Amino acid sequence: MMEYFQKTQQAFEKYRAEGGLLLGIESSCDETAAAVLRGGREVLSMAVHTQIPIHRLYGGVVPEIASRSHTERITAVTEEALNKAGVTLGDIAAVAVTSEPGLIGALLVGVSFAKGLALAGEKPLIGVNHIEGHIAANYLTYPDLEPPFMCLVASGGHSHIVLVKDYDEFELVGRTRDDAAGEAFDKVARALGLPYPGGPEVEKLAREGNKHAFPLHTPFNSDTSNFDFSFSGVKTAVVNLLHNARQKGEELDKADLAASFQHSVVETLTKKAVAAALERGMGTLALAGGVSANTALRNSLERACRKAGLRFCRPDMRFCTDNAAMIACQGHYRMLKGARSDLDLNPSAESFLSK
Ligand SMILES: Nc1ncnc2c1ncn2[C@@H]1O[C@H](COP(=O)(O)OP(=O)(O)OP(=O)(O)O)[C@@H](O)[C@H]1O
Ligand SMILES: [Mg+2]
After folding, report:
1. Residues with CB under 6 A from ligand 1
2. What angle (nearest 5°) sits at the alpha carbon of residue 57, between those of residues 55 and 61?
3. Rounded to the nearest 5°, which phi and psi values hold at 130?
4. DSSP 8-class letter at 229
């Protein structure tokens, strides 16, 4: 192990001085992904194998099935990314891999695979935090974006307001007290009889509904003197409305319910994120994570930022949900800051952001 670290020290320093091709690998949940970047921001290729059709059968991600699918696909997905970029493994200067947080078995597949490539090819390795990766998706979309800025991270497992002080320095300003925004979308979708993952399905249905039909706002979520959220109450309110109507033999307008739920989540996220950016004197508010694909949220934040005099950034659609380009990008900046991993890199299921 010692030998690997020493052997690759020169290559690490060369990458930091001159840049080069970076291979990113992501396997934290239900997407097996690889990407090739030149330097930190130029995406040469992306390959993603999504397991959504497999997990849809069960209404959510089944961890053991996810790990097996990653194992089956990771080699092919990596080859696809290399081929699309027109390069070989020999051309790759360093390897970045998601090491936390996520499903432990799923993370293990990517981390073990990346370690194998790094060891065999004598390339430096960097473990990357998945949430930091989501934030970095904005660097890929805006070539001029640099910290500091405020970032709203809304994904399947997280809802955070993060002050991005530097590429490798973060402060958690607000967080969900219970469900993540994406998780609430998924659970409401299930209650409405929509397939997994629920976010895009709820969004589609919401387009046909009246967002003011069911007032679902809570005092806690409307209070901008603190930056925490709670989505469990809104989710439960939707479920209760459905149950009560069913018991009475009535049918609720599901599009109205979807629109009202989405409106409540979007309003909460928008108000709190903008208030946090202003309070901390930031000129830019960025959006990140799978829920950033939601058009209502993107539009609402864009409007609110314009009104507040803030620059608004959100990832290109292809960088919103899990992908490896964002992981490689964050790995690049971590390495420029001097960080690298050894072969004892271990995945971790928990962890919000490394400091
Ligand atoms: N258009 C959309 N509207 C609302 N939610 C969406 C939309 N598209 C995707 N989502 C939600 O985003 C989540 C998936 O995002 P992502 O892949 O970043 O989550 P994850 O990787 O599972 O969780 P984490 O990043 O927190 O570890 C799901 O909950 C999904 O429902
Ligand atoms: Mg994610």
Report:
1. 28-29, 102, 130, 134, 155-158, 182-183, 185-186, 197-200, 203, 289-291, 293-294, 321-322
2. 25
3. -60, -40
4. B
- 96 contacts 15 by C-beta, under 8 angstroms: no
Nearest partner of 174 among 301, 277, 303, judged by Cα: 277
Ligand with minimal distance to 296 CA: 1
Query: DSSP assignment of 132-162, as one string?
Result: HHHHHHHHHH-TT--S-EEEEEE-SS-EEEE
pLDDT value for 1: 57
CA distance 231 to 351: 21
Distance CA(336)–CA(130), nearest Å, equals 18
User: Nearest ligand, CA of residue 30?
Assistant: 1
Paired tokens of 48: 């993603």
Segment 34-87, tens digit of pLDDT: 999 999 999 999 999 999 999 999 988 999 999 999 999 999 999 999 999 999
Instruction: Report CA(320)–ligand 2 centroid distance (Å).
Output: 8
CA of 228 to the centre of ligand 1 (A): 19
